[in-house]
Amino acid sequence: MEGLAGFDLFALMVLFVSGVMALMRGFVREALTITAFVGAALAALWSQPVMGAVAREFIASPLIANLIAMALVFLIVYLAISFVTSSLSRSVKEGEEVSTIDRTLGFVFGVVRGILLLGLIVLVFKNTLPGAQPEWLRGARVYPLAEATARLLQSLAPEGTWAGGTAGEQRENLDDDPIGRLIERTNEDPNG
């Protein structure tokens, strides 16, 4: 493996580990796990105005109350969805042909997930170290793929988010309490 940069070796490790983990678990189980995570995250965000208000009656700090409320909703919904989806994934594993296809698709899913993770890493580097990237990163053979993935992820990020520009540009838009501002925005009445 002569001529591979450190980031190339790291990328190969990420792709291998992600692919093998998904191969062992299978596509259905991996997809259902992500479904449970996304569903729980959405439930936590959507319920935050109501559950945060309830928690603020018992906890003095609005920030802590909102975070605890969101964490509890996330945990409860994640466990509930995971309980339901685990029985679905068990039924898929019963057939041998389906299991082979499921595991093969799982491996592909894992490699794609690994590529997305590499893109996220490059996106973090681009936003925290604006300007020229380190040579060990730019010189990596896998960098063009990871950088293209980072651009894709950045294009999907909502405007005004951290991923929408460099850290220096985003710092200009932050006040002393960005988390508090976010919570205030989520508590605002959408109709008023």
Automatic annotation (TrEMBL):
Membrane-topology annotation of the record: Multi-pass membrane protein
Compartments, record wording: Membrane
Domain of life of the organism encoding this protein: Bacteria
Keyword list, A-Z: Membrane, Transmembrane, Transmembrane helix
Gene Ontology biological-process entries: toxin biosynthetic process
Signal peptide region: none
Phylogenetic lineage: Bacteria, Pseudomonadati, Pseudomonadota, Alphaproteobacteria, Maricaulales
PANTHER family the record matches: COLICIN V PRODUCTION PROTEIN
Main subcellular location: membrane
GO cellular component: membrane
Protein name, as recorded: CvpA family protein
Record organism: Marinicauda algicola
TM helices/strands, residue ranges: 6-24, 31-51, 63-84, 105-125
Keyword rRNA processing applies: no
Segments of this protein annotated with the region Disordered: 162-192
Segments of skewed composition (Basic and acidic residues): 169-192
